[in-house]
Amino acid sequence: MVKPPIPVPDSGVLPQERQQRILAKLRHDGRVVAAELAAAFEVSEDSIRRDLRELAAQGLCKRVYGGALLPAATPTPLKQRRGEHSARKLMLARKAASLVSAGQTLLIDAGSTNAAIATVLPADARLVVITNAPHIAQLLLDREGFEVLLIGGRIDAAIGGTVGAQAVEQVRRTRADLCFPGACAIDAAHGLWGFDSEEALFKRAMIEASDETVVVATDDKLGAVATHQVAELSRVQHLVVEHSADRATRSAFASRGMAVHRADSVPS
Amino acid sequence: MVKPPIPVPDSGVLPQERQQRILAKLRHDGRVVAAELAAAFEVSEDSIRRDLRELAAQGLCKRVYGGALLPAATPTPLKQRRGEHSARKLMLARKAASLVSAGQTLLIDAGSTNAAIATVLPADARLVVITNAPHIAQLLLDREGFEVLLIGGRIDAAIGGTVGAQAVEQVRRTRADLCFPGACAIDAAHGLWGFDSEEALFKRAMIEASDETVVVATDDKLGAVATHQVAELSRVQHLVVEHSADRATRSAFASRGMAVHRADSVPS
DNA sequence: TGGCTGTTTGCATGTTTATGCACGATTTAT
DNA sequence: ATAAATCGTGCATAAACATGCAAACAGCCA
């Protein structure tokens, strides 16, 4: 009777193609807004909502009021648990991971403690991780959800990651929010120390390329001193220690202006 | 009786040729619209739809409402692709490793076949291995006896190694005796091909940084063609194929001046 | 040449898919 | 608590679709 609706099917973009692009944008930005998409593709919000509903049905996105977000990360079935990480080290890693915010860029050094941290980083926080350790890179690739940058150069087998001039130069050309230099020894009076000259130089470059530095130290590293200094304590903003760490030691670091984080004693 | 239809068979373009052109346009643009193709080839949309249906049946495109898109490249999370090296792949890897001499410097690309090669390289040959794949680097570190150099840069999760400008630049500053670019497709007439633009550029840089190039190809790679050319066959000195490789195919490559190495059929 | 077969094409038919709108329910913000 | 925004569902419409059919053409054999 009256003017019938104008069910224009489309003009230019194929429906399926539109869904793919929505998915691509979602994966890039971490979220999409229905109204924006409707304007961008020149279709009604109804169609966009239908698309998002379909994608959500396939588990490719999570439907929320106003748009959609990335699907909730798989809660890590814990199937692939590495026996190497002791329970204590995992507690330490969890506390360290809690210092990370979504969207940050992290610089992660080689080392078993840092590998433990990589296993507990949130996969849905759109983190960018720069590392010199192939083991850690592989770990994060397997978990999916991380953008991983590799530091090139010659690998020191004893360290398990690249060090040396090329690695240092490459780190200098990067910028990170947070860095985790593996600690060889840390002392409230003398600062952060490494066993090897090249290693110490690399860690120093990491710290200088980051806004903030987190040192994660098992008990045996606290108060110890090695041969090559990495940095003064003034460059270290956070120290993560085990639950069993000595109270006096903790306050010694705290009095130097560092935030001291004590790991839990039992799994939460 | 009435006006009979005018089933003009065609004017100038053969049906098969039309399908090839549609496929070319699809691979160039990533999508094709049925209506546009009908106008371009001056045939009815019905014929175009028939073409698209045939191409889709061959898995060369994905049929969608309004046209067609590139087939959903299922990158097979590579976690499972790496799961275990089949016996056939191991035979290939052994033959490839036999081309390596003591003291050489190798450039090894990412990929499951190359990972298999890394597991069978002689550990006592004082080899220097340069790789862009953290998985392969880790493999060699665990085996001990290798000097490993890492190519830095952003890691493509689908590839499992670094690609991009930074990786290419770093490869250009190295020099190797032998390189193993992972093959996506190799054709006696058209050369070596890759699926991804960045990937192809990186492989090309690898080849240019090496004295000799070895391509290790499973049967499904032989005679196939992908979208981005890596190099002419004149840059490839050695081709390693499975025992089951077609005889005619083997001689086709041999007549192009390549040394064709056929893997054993049973473990030695 | 003439008849036969197979392919390709456009057209007609009925079906499926995608869309925008209307309406009421639900959620979020104020 | 009230208003605004967003959501889900049903509906009508048109485009895109699959299918069946007959015409035109090429090749083949007699």
TrEMBL record, chains A, B:
Alphabetized PROSITE patterns for the sequence: HTH_DEOR_2 (PS51000)
Report if keyword Repressor is assigned.
yes
UniProt GO MF annotations? DNA binding
Q: Where is the HTH deoR-type domain?
A: 15-70
Q: Where are the transmembrane segments?
A: none
Q: Which UniProt keywords apply?
A: DNA-binding, Repressor, Transcription, Transcription regulation
- What protein name applies here? DeoR/GlpR family DNA-binding transcription regulator
